[in-house]
Design brief:
With about 70 residues, this protein is mostly helical. It has helices at about 1-25, 30-35, 40-50, 60-65. It starts with a helix and ends in an 8-residue tail after the last helix.
């Protein structure tokens, strides 16, 4: 029926967007990149602050997120 087909389309869209989100996640190891991947980013920031860790913003996604130019020059 049309309802079932529409329901399947909705499920496919959600599944596709989840897969795209997983592929697009930052792969960096800096504080901000890890926080962007984390379910609870505050914990990542708190742990980093506790040990005095800073983020050199070498990850492209982190640089763009904070408004820095894409290159580190």
């Amino acid at each position: 029926t049309a309802k079932k087909a529409l329901g399947q389309v909705a499920i496919d869209v959600v599944r596709s967007s989840q897969q795209l989100h997983e592929l697009k996640q930052s792969k960096g190891f800096g504080v901000l990149a890890r926080a962007m991947r984390a379910e609870h980013p505050g914990v990542v920031f708190a742990r980093a602050a506790a040990i005095g860790q800073t983020d050199p913003l070498t990850d492209l996604d982190s640089r763009l997120f904070v408004g820095s130019p894409p290159n580190s020059e």
